[in-house]
Design goal:
globular; 5 helices; single chain; about 20% strand; Rossmann fold; alpha/beta
């Protein structure tokens, strides 16, 4: 599958995708990288890797750019905005969330906010969820979940680091599953 990557920040997940594709551990190809935030490190990395890279502040502009590329799957890689794809790709958007959905998800739960909530609640496990995105935050079909332990002395930053390690395996695994089984398989 041909993929677009949407991001809002440093591009750590893009780094992971690029490495996994280069090593043959992740199927598909990245056709374009788009950020809703101007001048972020993720766009610099995209250019360095040889991917077309764009800043687009809103859904309409993002979709105009995607329309110029042959894209089958859109990967939300730290994209901190509710994305509304064009109708032709409405079921083709994969997102990574830094918790085990349905815990700590929905509007307002992203990044360190999730990890602080996990710590405050005293959870013994956390993790990440790769799911198809729809028009409601964190509600589409789940493709892959990974658990990580949470120890009593862990800080939210410790939890975040452990979850990100899990994300680096879970997201490529989910992409490979979607390419193997097809998008419709998950929208039963």
């Amino acid at each position: 599958m041909k993929m677009a990557v949407l991001l809002s920040g440093s591009g750590r997940t893009l780094d992971n995708f690029h490495e996994k594709i280069e090593n043959g551990e992740m199927l598909g190809s990245i056709e374009v990288v788009i950020s809703n935030v101007e001048n972020v490190l993720g766009l610099e990395k995209a250019v360095k890797y040889g991917y077309p890279a764009y800043h687009a502040p809103d859904n309409d502009e993002i979709n105009r750019i995607i329309d110029d590329y042959d894209v089958d799957l859109i990967l939300l890689a730290g994209f901190l905005k509710l994305y509304q794809p064009p109708p032709s790709l409405g079921r083709s958007v994969l997102n990574i969330h830094p918790s085990l959905i349905p815990s700590f998800c929905g509007a307002g739960y992203y990044g360190m906010r999730v990890h602080r909530a996990v710590k405050e609640r005293g959870l013994k496990v956390s993790g990440c969820t790769v799911h198809f995105a729809n028009e409601i935050y964190d509600e589409g079909p789940i493709v892959v979940q990974r658990c990580v332990p949470v120890e009593d002395p862990d800080s939210p930053e410790d939890i975040a680091a452990r979850v990100f390690e899990a994300e680096c395996e879970a997201f490529p695994e989910a992409v490979n599953l979607v390419i193997d089984k097809g998008i419709d398989y998950f929208w039963k």
